[in-house]
Design a protein that fits this description.
GO terms for molecular function: ATP binding; creatine kinase activity; protein arginine kinase activity. This is Protein-arginine kinase. With about 350 residues, the protein is α+β, with helices and mostly antiparallel strands. The chain is about 45% helix and about 15% strand. An eight-stranded antiparallel sheet has the order 2-3-4-5-1-8-10-9, with helices on one face. Strands 6-7 form a two-stranded antiparallel ribbon. Helix 9 packs across helix 10 (about 285-300), helix 10 (about 285-300) runs antiparallel to helix 11 and helix 12 crosses helix 13. The protein is globular and about 65 Å long.
Length: about 350
């Protein structure tokens, strides 16, 4: 299989597109937690109860379609290999928690992989919509539409005072988690992020790593999301997040201008050194790869590096994860072997782009 063919089939179609403010905001996500009133919630359900809920949901949603999203594909966790589940986590289509679940859980995914509906994770249903760039309102509109469509088929667990009932008290109310994935290399290089992150928490938001709670912010990529789900409308929660992210975007742009103005040679040196590592290294650890990819992406956004697409960071941050490496090379790999294969894949990806840019006779 050629690398280009693998990329076309492995990287989610929505991820290969640009969106508003895509130089800083990589993606926008809305997730809604919902439970069915007639079944015990997954966290307390017996195996028999969980299976009943699973097949009840499957009967209602499998092979169904919603407007332009097309038909949803049903993937049951006990029918997938561990590598396949790992790839779904790395593509943000399922949570790490669902990866650990057994045959009592599943996920529904549309063709473009912009929508996934997790079944029997912490809640009966977790509806997730992903958009490229800064498109929170668009993601919320789609999520609400899908939510209404699903609610027409099920009786949700809902309380007039408390709102939607969820397994975790922190999700009660709207059941909404809104988040954006942002690339903030200049704020990290200038160390301004150290004082900005605590300030963000004061707005009822949280700063996490690329895979959410408990994960590390690899490659200067952060997930900013809401913590409060009760006492505010969905629109207000999203608007609060939008306002903070807009400030982050502005601060990152200021930091980038300052770096160009005061440390241009040092910045160019850093970017080209990282480009050289990616283009020529034979062994590269995931953290070093993420750091170098972040530098090169910054160089692309600032016009210092040409001939590479902006989406290369999005692609390679996913493709160089352990699951994808083993999926691409079709073999189980030790950590040391992954470091070698990661370097190979990155070199091939850069060479692929360079070959496309070469003039043809």
């Amino acid at each position: 299989m050629s690398l280009q063919h693998f990329i076309n089939h492995a990287v989610s179609p929505w991820m290969q597109a640009d969106g508003p403010d895509a130089d800083i905001v990589l993606s926008s996500r809305i997730r809604l937690a919902r439970n069915l009133s007639e079944f015990a919630f997954p966290v307390i359900a017996s195996k028999e109860q969980a299976q009943k809920a699973l097949y009840f949901i499957k009967e209602k949603l499998e092979d169904e379609s919603y407007h332009s999203l097309g038909t949803f594909e049903w993937l049951q966790m006990n029918e997938l290999q561990s590598i396949e589940k790992r790839v779904l986590v790395e593509k943000h289509l399922i949570s790490p928690n669902l990866d650990k679940e057994s045959g009592d859980s599943a996920v529904l995914i549309n063709e473009s992989e912009s929508v996934s509906i997790m079944v029997n994770e912490e809640d009966h249903l977790r509806i997730q919509c992903l958009f490229p760039g800064f498109q929170l309102n668009e993601a919320l509109t789609l999520a609400n539409g899908i939510d209404d469509w699903i609610e027409s088929k099920f009786d949700y667990a809902f309380d007039e005072k408390r709102g939607y009932l969820t397994s975790c008290p922190t999700n009660v109310g709207t059941g909404l988690r809104a988040s954006v994935m942002v690339h903030l290399p200049a704020l990290m290089i200038t160390q301004r992020m150290n004082r900005i992150a605590p300030a963000i928490n004061q707005f009822g938001l949280v700063v996490r790593g690329i895979y959410g709670e408990g994960s590390e912010a690899l490659g200067n990529v952060f997930q900013i999301s809401n913590q409060i789900t009760l006492g505010k409308s969905e629109e207000d929660i999203v608007e609060d997040l939008r306002g903070v992210v807009m400030q982050l975007i502005q601060q990152e742009k200021v930091a980038r201008r300052d770096l160009l103005k005061m440390s241009k040679i040092q910045l160019e040196d850093r970017i080209y050194r990282s480009y050289g590592v990616l283009a020529h290294s034979r062994i590269i650890h995931s953290k070093e790869a993420a750091k170098c990819l972040s530098d090169v992406r910054l160089g692309i956004d600032l016009g210092i590096i040409s001939g590479l697409p902006r989406t290369i960071l999005n692609e390679l941050m996913v493709l160089t994860q352990p699951g994808f490496l083993q999926h691409y090379f079709k073999e189980s790999l030790t950590p040391d072997e992954r470091d070698v294969r990661r370097a190979t894949l990155i070199r091939e990806r850069i060479q692929l782009e360079q070959n496309q840019d070469e003039p043809r006779d």
